[in-house]
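Pipeline run #58 for the internal structure catalog. This entry was flagged by the ingest filter as a single-chain record with no existing model, so it goes straight to prediction. Upstream metadata was stripped on purpose; only the residue string is passed forward. Reviewer on rotation: M.T. Logging verbosity set to normal.
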Amino acid sequence: MARESEFLALSDVALRSVIGPGSRHVALIEDAFKVLVESPGGGVSINGSTKDRAAAKRVVEVLAKRADLGAEITEADVRTALGAQRSGGKTPEGVALPVGRRGAIAPKTPAQARYLEALARCELTFGVGPAGTGKTFLAAAYGASLLRRGQVDRLVITRPAVEAGEKLGFLPGDLNEKVDPYLAPIWEALNEILGADDVRRRRDKGEIEAAPIAFMRGRTLSHAFIIADEAQNLTRLQMKMVLTRLGEGARMVVTGDPSQVDLVNTRDSGLPHALRILENVKGVGVLRFEAADVVRHAMVERIVRAYDADAAAARGGDATAP
């Protein structure tokens, strides 16, 4: 098969992002499609068969578009784009949140793009699926963008204080000191998005509030963006209580992984119950992430797939048991 060369013009920002540190991003693209990618200036030249060249070009275009939107391009972004191209999946189109300290935050997968669209469209959004798919991070980023633009008065974060199979005992300190260990993923996300100093300032002003589920009872949260994280560990009664806190001008996102329930009675998890009865209610959006949407590390996706396969095999065994 004939190997020809095709030139793709790129902006300086996009060109640096496509090449990557030490030409690492280009090397990944070359390995994936057996092409040669060179940068003679003003863009990249792709040499290879017609099919391989077209596939590599589509990946370069996806990365370039994200870079031109202001997003930081990492190796994980390149691997995600390569995976989507190899599987024939669609790549996310120009949605970006201009709140990241290191550039705009753009979706890495089509599922993440649909998630951001649901957050913008729906008063109540459920983001469910395995770890590493960006459910919590994108929820925090979207809430931070609303807060910065003045579209909400505050960001309220809550989650159940349920340990993952461990009994941590009494935690000393005031309310924030007791709750913060459970909200570490949220704070890490917000610190990365807004910066630790800005997060601290907004917490002191009451613009960012963290509270355990028990402190939600009896409240009406108006003009707020509410994140209910680790919702698989909410009981059915707790889920109903949290969902009914919505007040005027408020929006809520509920995130969780139904496969990681830490409740003593796993059947009492309020997340699958809420999904079943609310999915078709007006104003409710549901986005289900899968193992293919994992963007944390390639190994995480393989781990999730292995556990999913084991769970499916166990279900099959139960079905055939006498």
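catalog note: The first helix runs from residue 12 to 19.
catalog note: The mean pLDDT is 84.
status: ready for reviewer M.T.
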